[in-house]
């Protein structure tokens, strides 16, 4: 009766997993490490299982007609699992002593459960084949994030950030839902294949209103230009590990949402919505870069940096399906690894000092390895050649340029110069500036040191791997 | 009653929601405005399902799911607002000024 095909096994496990972790916590003492160990084993097991799924190519495999597992979905799942795993490792220390002058957090099992639910929402978005599953996936991915942002009840900034986030997020949901309703009205069906057929057979004002509402809604979640204003406040107010999870998991889910939409039901009109995407991408990366120039607090700086990164990723959406999907997945891996490396370094600084540029001064003398890790992650985010970020950006721009959007690509490359300037400012603070006044010494725990070494190696290796083997990333999707 | 009337009603409701969201300075009022916007989408779904769609059940079902999801969202929103209230003793959004550039 229960005949579960093995390609959806990771999804099923991830759905059951948070219930097990939260359930176990009821039977052990507060100080027990059992839920934490179990969560580690579970996340790593699911990640390994995902790697065992053979690449299918083509349209993927279906489960009950609206759950599709294709190559893009499997790779996106891996990105989301990497993000969940790293987010969990980053958060562990915040349950023992607080960071950035905030009190420590509580209820680690529920925290991990919420991250797992958000990840499952991302899984649902990438495998959805109809609007209902799609909508539910997006909500499952977002609702735990609201709770995560407000996790530290004794921190006044946390509750303010969460209030702003949930107000903006709910408005975004309403816009998306309104767009979905017009899309349903236009095509008369919820299934993506039928919507695609209806879109291909002719357009009407209803379709364009739907597209407009959908882009408004996802603009909020992806922090695109007119709708990005909540992001710096929320990124700054939320606890640091939550900011990291927000900037990777939530962004990856939103990008996946756009990819599924643009290359699925809306693919017949992709060339007509290209100007809209190009405009949003160009303005977003410009505004993000300008905003980051004048920041002095680290997490606010990362918020503007991630707004700009969202703009860069949008550039790829102009290209043909295979190129764009490959570029986006590769870039998301690189972005996740570089971003988490930066957040681990900021987290260590935040445990002992304030999270500002001031606290970075003299880092190269006090703790050279930490300064090197910071430089690696910043150079990768800025896109300096030997590191992974350069090749990621190269693929994104290549995808945009392959359909002839040279102006936008040139604009994005020029913007990269501004980006380089502010990333270099951070490196200058760590390597050149002398500390003024007394700064608390930094101590690394064993886990932090191991993760930072692992991530640094990953950032460097991801830059070389595509050249060692021609087809690791080039030809996996047709 | 025809499709156009229902669509206009839904659009007006959505507009009232957006207007209320911008005019209201009270958190509960803003939540109610958001609820109006979500319900406008529900009316759209149901009217499309009733008048035009060849897959009518799906549209009606969608609105039921939306109601459930909205309930979850509002539960979390109210929980967050309660923590806000405990700290500030008021529900005015203009006090959300600790985080800024």
UniProtKB/TrEMBL annotation, chain B:
<dbReference type="GO" id="GO:0048038">
    <property type="term" value="F:quinone binding"/>
</dbReference>
<dbReference type="GO" id="GO:0042773">
    <property type="term" value="P:ATP synthesis coupled electron transport"/>
</dbReference>
<keyword id="KW-1133">Transmembrane helix</keyword>
<keyword id="KW-0812">Transmembrane</keyword>
<keyword id="KW-0560">Oxidoreductase</keyword>
<dbReference type="GO" id="GO:0005886">
    <property type="term" value="C:plasma membrane"/>
</dbReference>
<comment type="similarity">
    <text>Belongs to the complex I subunit 4L family.</text>
</comment>
<keyword id="KW-1003">Cell membrane</keyword>
<keyword id="KW-1278">Translocase</keyword>
<keyword id="KW-0997">Cell inner membrane</keyword>
<keyword id="KW-0520">NAD</keyword>
<dbReference type="InterPro" id="IPR001133">
    <property type="entry name" value="NADH_UbQ_OxRdtase_chain4L/K"/>
</dbReference>
<keyword id="KW-0813">Transport</keyword>
<comment type="subunit">
    <text>NDH-1 is composed of 14 different subunits. Subunits NuoA, H, J, K, L, M, N constitute the membrane sector of the complex.</text>
</comment>
<feature type="transmembrane region" description="Helical">
    <location>
        <begin position="34"/>
        <end position="53"/>
    </location>
</feature>
<dbReference type="GO" id="GO:0050136">
    <property type="term" value="F:NADH dehydrogenase (quinone) (non-electrogenic) activity"/>
</dbReference>
<dbReference type="Pfam" id="PF00420">
    <property type="entry name" value="Oxidored_q2"/>
</dbReference>
<keyword id="KW-0472">Membrane</keyword>
<comment type="function">
    <text>NDH-1 shuttles electrons from NADH, via FMN and iron-sulfur (Fe-S) centers, to quinones in the respiratory chain. The immediate electron acceptor for the enzyme in this species is believed to be ubiquinone. Couples the redox reaction to proton translocation (for every two electrons transferred, four hydrogen ions are translocated across the cytoplasmic membrane), and thus conserves the redox energy in a proton gradient.</text>
</comment>
<feature type="transmembrane region" description="Helical">
    <location>
        <begin position="6"/>
        <end position="22"/>
    </location>
</feature>
<protein>
    <recommendedName>
        <fullName>NADH-quinone oxidoreductase subunit K</fullName>
        <ecNumber>7.1.1.-</ecNumber>
    </recommendedName>
</protein>
<keyword id="KW-0830">Ubiquinone</keyword>
<feature type="transmembrane region" description="Helical">
    <location>
        <begin position="59"/>
        <end position="82"/>
    </location>
</feature>
<dbReference type="GO" id="GO:0030964">
    <property type="term" value="C:NADH dehydrogenase complex"/>
</dbReference>
<keyword id="KW-0874">Quinone</keyword>
<dbReference type="InterPro" id="IPR039428">
    <property type="entry name" value="NUOK/Mnh_C1-like"/>
</dbReference>
